[in-house]
C-alpha cells in the first residue's frame, strides 16, 4: 500500500461518511410529514430495487440465491432494527444527539462478539465498553428528562448496528459485495414494510401511513442514493487503505452532523452532548487501537 493509496482511501471514506450525514439531515427534514418507519421502508425498497437491477445485469439471476438464507435474514433484520431506531430518533431529537449515542455500536459489537461469534472478549474491551456507557449516560441524562423513553432510541440503533456488524462478519465470503448489499437492503425493506403496516394499525399518530406528498418520495429517493453511494465509497476506501486505517473516519459524522444540524435546523450541540460524544469517541478509538495492537502482535 502506497501513501497515495492510503490518502485516497481516507478521502473516499470521509466522503462516504459525510454522505451518510447528508442523508440523515434529509431524513430529519421529513419529521411530522410521514411515518419514520414508512420513510425507512420506502428508502430501502428503492435501494433494493436499484441494487437488484445492477446485480441482475452484472452477475445474472443465480446471484440472487444466498448461500445462507437465514443469515441474510438476520442481516436485514439487524439493519431494519437500527434504521427504525435511528429514523424515529432523528424525528424527535437533534441530529447530533442521535448520532453521538449511536456511536456506542462498536462497543456493543465488541461485547457481543463473545457470545455470538465465540471470540474472547479482551480486558480492554470491557474497559472501553464501560467508558462508552459513561459517555452515553452523560448525553442521556438531560435528554431523558426532556424526552422520556424516546431518548433511548439511539441505543436501539447502536444495538442493531452491532448485530449487523457481527452478522456481516459471519457472512464474509458468501457472495460478492454487490450481492451482500442487495441481500441486506432487500431484507431490511421486507422487515420495514411489515413494521410500517403494524405501526399504521397501532393508532399512534406519529406512525400513521397515508399517501405521501411527492416531496417525501423524492427525499426518500435522495436518502437511498446518499446511503448507497456512501456505502460504495467506504467500500472503495477500505480496499485502498484497509479497514483498520479508515475505521476512525466514521467520527467525521459528528462534525458534519453538528454543522448540518445548525445550518438546517438551528440546533447547536450543547457542551454536555459534546462532552458525552467525546467520551464515546474516545472509547471507540481505544477499541480501534487495541485491535491494531492485537493484529500487529499476531503478525509478529
Task: Describe the fold and architecture.
This protein has 300 residues and is mainly alpha-helical. It has one domain. The chain is built from 12 helices and no strands. Helix 1 (3-28) runs parallel beside helix 11, helix 2 packs across helix 9 and helix 3 packs across helix 8 (177-201). The chain is globular. It starts with a helix and ends with a helix. The model has no long low-confidence stretch (mean pLDDT 86).
In summary, what is this structure?
With 300 residues, the chain is mainly α.
Descriptive labels:
0% strand, globular, mainly alpha, 79% helix, 300 residues
Task: Please give the structural blueprint.
Layout: H1 3-28, H2 36-59, H3 69-92, H4 95-102, H5 105-117, H6 123-147, H7 153-170, H8 177-201, H9 214-241, H10 243-246, H11 252-265, H12 271-299
Helix pairs in contact: 1-9, 1-11, 2-3, 2-8, 2-9, 3-7, 3-8, 4-7, 4-11, 4-12, 5-6, 5-7, 6-12
Overall geometric form: globular
Number of helices: 12
Order of helices and strands: HHHHHHHHHHHH
Q: Cα-atom Rg, whole angstroms?
A: 19 Å
Q: Averaged pLDDT, please?
A: 86
User: In which range does the helix fraction lie?
Assistant: over 70%
Return the domain count. 1
Number of strands: 0
Poorly predicted regions are none
Q: What class would the helix/strand composition place it in?
A: mainly alpha
Strand content: under 5%
Largest sheet: none
Amino acid at each position: 500500500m502506497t501513501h497515495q493509496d492510503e490518502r485516497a482511501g481516507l478521502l473516499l471514506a470521509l466522503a462516504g461518511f459525510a454522505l451518510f450525514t447528508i442523508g440523515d439531515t434529509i431524513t430529519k427534514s421529513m419529521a411530522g410529514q410521514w411515518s419514520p418507519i414508512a420513510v425507512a421502508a420506502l428508502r430501502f425498497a428503492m435501494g433494493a430495487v436499484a441494487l437488484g437491477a445492477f446485480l441482475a445485469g452484472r452477475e445474472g439471476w443465480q446471484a440472487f440465491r444466498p448461500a445462507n438464507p437465514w443469515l441474510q435474514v438476520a442481516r436485514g433484520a439487524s439493519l431494519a432494527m437500527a434504521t427504525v431506531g435511528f429514523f424515529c430518533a432523528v424525528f424527535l431529537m437533534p441530529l447530533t444527539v442521535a448520532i453521538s449515542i449511536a456511536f456506542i455500536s462498536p462497543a456493543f459489537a465488541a461485547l457481543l462478539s463473545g457470545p455470538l461469534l465465540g471470540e474472547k472478549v479482551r480486558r480492554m474491551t470491557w474497559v472501553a465498553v464501560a467508558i462508552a456507557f459513561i459517555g452515553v449516560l452523560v448525553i442521556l441524562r438531560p435528554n431523558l428528562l426532556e424526552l422520556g423513553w424516546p431518548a433511548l432510541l439511539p441505543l436501539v440503533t447502536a444495538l442493531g448496528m452491532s448485530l449487523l456488524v457481527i452478522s456481516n462478519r459471519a457472512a464474509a465470503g458468501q457472495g460478492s459485495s454487490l450481492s451482500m448489499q442487495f441481500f441486506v437492503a432487500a431484507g431490511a425493506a421486507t422487515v420495514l414494510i411489515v413494521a410500517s403496516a403494524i405501526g399504521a394499525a397501532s393508532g399512534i399518530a406519529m406512525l400513521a401511513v397515508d399517501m405521501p406528498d411527492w416531496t417525501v418520495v423524492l427525499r426518500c429517493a435522495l436518502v437511498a442514493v446518499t446511503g448507497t453511494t456512501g456505502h460504495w465509497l467506504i467500500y472503495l476506501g477500505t480496499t485502498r487503505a484497509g479497514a483498520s486505517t479508515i475505521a476512525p473516519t466514521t467520527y467525521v459524522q459528528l462534525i458534519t452532523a453538528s454543522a448540518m444540524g445548525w445550518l438546517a435546523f438551528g440546533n447547536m450541540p450543547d457542551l454536555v452532548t459534546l462532552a458525552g460524544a467525546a467520551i464515546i469517541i474516545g472509547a471507540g478509538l481505544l477499541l480501534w487501537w487495541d485491535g491494531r495492537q492485537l493484529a500487529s502482535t499476531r503478525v509478529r
